[in-house]
Structure formats: structure tokens, C-alpha cells
């Protein structure tokens, strides 16, 4: 698996740390279903998914990676800041 | 058909012509009292205990592939009861006791071998943590012995004790830990359930769950609709997908875990060895293959095969621990889909739908749980109340924050287990 970092170019998966599903952070002030969903509950799709990775051993940027959980194909990556939802 | 020494001898002398199929292959009926989705270890054990403990036999197990073709036939077969947290420890303690009676209970040779498990430690801090864990195990009524360096050397003389990074300080020895023949466990429960009247339906994928007015009515399958008064979901790595058929989202992410086996060797490793600091564990199968593995690949996956970085990592860890392993040749490697919860512990609970129950989230440790989970899930389905040893495995613990079971102490967060 290789991930195309928009800053550094395509790099080996070893340089990246997986964080989890890329979800919008809830704006709720209080604990409730919004935070429970954000922290715990997952679509967990078999197929295309968008998840957060950090280019830890590279530029340090947080990326949203689009990939396929069945084939392991990596379909694209963009900077998490300003990523399209 | 019952197995006995006499029967084996007789068949051996008469060309093995008298053996019969181990379970019936029935057509699905239009309706059952209880439908279990998933014919892995947990689903088959659930069906067996529904019949045996609760006298419920109008039951079907629906399996999309073949019985035992999932993780129950892909794991590295470690069976142990060395948990620390209340909530986990009484459950695994109960499960290990069921293991100890399993061969008699099923009249099936599952090759359960209590060869002893040794968890290694490499610092004073780790020794303290393992001493504490050992005391928790003893308090639970299980067995644990804290070994010093020389104690470990008596059992495992071939380790690299003076490794620069991970010198061996000692180990926590769990004599009742060990291994079993994974397929036989699935087959034994399947035969026991089928003999008691449970229908085991293979090549039958559940594609929908019928719910009316908040109550479960049955399931849609690749072999037609089947009505049921109660439905249990026990589909391991596919839990999220099947739960979605009932409109649920679970605190689960599916990940891939790999394992490896070498060609057959003469007996060399007598125990199960766990090298936690290197994320490596190993045992030797009765056929002689060294069976070993490491950690998750650490990204969501349904591929049932992993990537090379983890292969390299596991091989390096093996070489660090026991350099002699470098002479062995790896025969094959494979992966399985793990249903990882946010706190690393399982779920056995009711759902928001009346008559719909779920048993999932076994992560990479669900083989040893097969009998305990089957027993407790059958109890929940039959009696509509939790079985005491599994009462902590609540689905709502993530939302409420009460009773989280973070055995590793890393935090209740998906990418940390
Ligand atoms: C490499 C590896 C090593 C492991 N090592 C250990 C170990 O040493 N010790 C330990 O305790 N645990 C271990 N585990 C974990 C253990 O194997 C699992 O936690 C456990 O087997 C899961 O429960 P199961 O047996 O019921 O799962 P499975 O055997 O996967 O059963 C689930 C079944 O559900 C079926 N199914 C899915 N969707 C549907 C549907 N829609 N309709 C009908 N049927 C469906 C599947 O086909 C499958 O047969 C390991 C796992 C792996 C992959
Ligand atoms: Zn980068």
C-alpha cells in the first residue's frame, strides 16, 4: 500500500499512521449521540472509505485518504484541512 | 454416531467404511423459533447450548459459506484465561472451564492441549504489571506463576535472554493456557447441535432482517425468507454489515490480522510464548508447524489478507526473540477480518429491536471465547436476561461511559487496540 501525500509525493504505507474514519467533528457542546457517533459508531464499509492518516515519518500533515477496504487500492489523498466532506 | 477407541480400532481394521456425515444437511424450513446468523465458532456454540442447556431445538444456524470457513478456521488457536479486569476475567475463567470439559461434552477430539502459556517481560515496571495481573488471575480462581529469568530459562532455554533492547527479566506462566484444533471445535459443536435437532444451513447468506413495529419477524436470505421469533447476529468481522440490515451502527471497525506457519519441524517449542513488547507470539502445532503472528495491520480492512510491512515486523520480532527461528521456512501466511471494538472488549447484548440479539466485537481473541460466548449468548436469547459472567459486555457502555473494558489500558479509541 502506498499513499500519495499531496506535499511529499507517493510514499510507502510505513511512513503513515492510521487514525480512523474521517468524520466531521460534532459542534455539540454537550455529550450526546453526536459525540458517541463521532468517537465510537462506524459505517465500517466493505468497499470505498475515507479515513484519516498522518504522514508521521514525512511532512507530518494530516490527510484524508480515499481507499477500498476490500482491495486495499488507494484512490487518492488530500490534506485534511479543507478536505471536501 | 459416537466416537470411541473401539470404534476407531474397528474402522481402522475394516477400511474406514462405517463413518457417517457429522451433521445433517437439511433444507431451510419456512419458520423457526430462533435463527442464528453466522456458522462460526460462536454461532455453532450458541446453537449447541440453546439445545443442550435450554431445550430449544427449533433453531437454525444460517451460514453464508461453509461451516467453520471464517475466523474459527483461521486463528492461531491460543486458549487462555489471563485477563485482569473484572468483567473480562470471570468470563474467560468460565470459558476456560468449558474448554476443559469440551471433549467429553461433545464426544469430539478437539486436541485441547494445556501446554502452558508464558508472557515475557523485559523491565522492572513490566514485572510489577505482570505480578499484579497474576494476582488478579489467582483471585479469579485461575492459575498464574511469576517466573524469574532462570525460571523462564528452564522452560524456554532457546530464547535470546541478553537481547540488547529486550533482555528477558522473567515471565508470567499460565499452566492451563494452551492450544486446540480450531476446525474440530467448529465441527464438534456443529455435530452436537445437529444431533439435538438444530438445522445447520450452509450457503445461505442473510441479506435482510425483517422488523415490524420494533419487533424482529425473520430474515431474508439467498435461499428465501425465513421467519423467526428471535434472531441472533454472530458474524464476527461482518458484524457492522449485518447490524446495518437492522438499521444499527456498531462501535466496531473491521481490521485485518495476519498469521504464519512454517513447514513441519520436530518438536521444539513446547509452550505458547507471548512476546508482548515485540507484538509476537508463537506455538508449535501437533503437526510440527511453528504457528505465529503479531499485531493487526492497523487500518480498516475486509481483505482477509495483509500487507508486507506487518509480515516484516513479525519476522523481525521472531528473530529478536529466538534467533534459531531464522532456520525455519515459512510455508504460508493468511489473514482474517477482526471485529475491533473501541475498547478492545466484546459485546453480548440485546439490541433496540425486540427479539434481536447481538454477539460481536471479539477482536483478535475470540477463539478462546467460543464456548463461553456460546453459553452466555444462548442464555441471553433463551431467558432474555444476561448470564452473569458476560453481564459486562454491554452495547451501551461506549455511549454511557460506564463499564468500559479497556483491558490494555490504552484508552477507548478505535485505532488503539
Ligand atoms: C490470524 C488470526 C489469529 C487469531 N488468533 C486467535 C487466538 O490465538 N486466540 C483466540 O482466542 N482468538 C484468535 N483469533 C480470533 C478468533 O479467530 C475470532 O475472534 C473468532 O473466531 C470469531 O468468532 P467466530 O468463530 O464466530 O467467527 P467466524 O468463524 O468468522 O464466524 C462468522 C461467520 O459468519 C458468517 N457470516 C457473515 N456474514 C453473514 C451473512 N450475512 N449471512 C450468513 N452468514 C454470515 C461468516 O461466513 C462466518 O462463517 C484470531 C483471528 C485471526 C484472523
Ligand atoms: Zn507528506
Protein architecture, described:
The complex is a heterodimer of chains A (85) and B (417). Chain A has 85 residues and is mainly beta. Helix content of chain A is 8%, strand content 39%. In chain A, strand 1 and strand 2 form a beta hairpin. By secondary structure, chain B is α/β, with parallel strands linked by helices. Chain B is built from ten helices and 18 strands. In chain B, strands 1, 2, 8, 9, 10, 11, 17 and 18 form an eight-stranded mixed beta sheet that branches. An eight-stranded mixed beta sheet of chain B has the order 5-6-4-13-14-15-12-16. Chain B has a two-stranded antiparallel sheet with strand order 3-7. Classes of the chains: A mainly beta (85), B alpha/beta (417). At the A-B interface, strand 3 and helix 1 of A face strand 12 and strand 15 of B. The site of flavin-adenine dinucleotide (FAD) has 38 residues of chain B, from helix 2 and strand 12. Chain A: InterPro entries: SoxD, SoxD_sf. Chain A: This is Sarcosine oxidase subunit delta.
Feature tags:
heterodimer; A: 85 residues; mainly beta; Folate-binding fold; 1 helix; globular; B: 417 residues; alpha/beta; D-Amino Acid Oxidase, Chain A, domain 2; eight-stranded mixed beta sheet; binds flavin-adenine dinucleotide
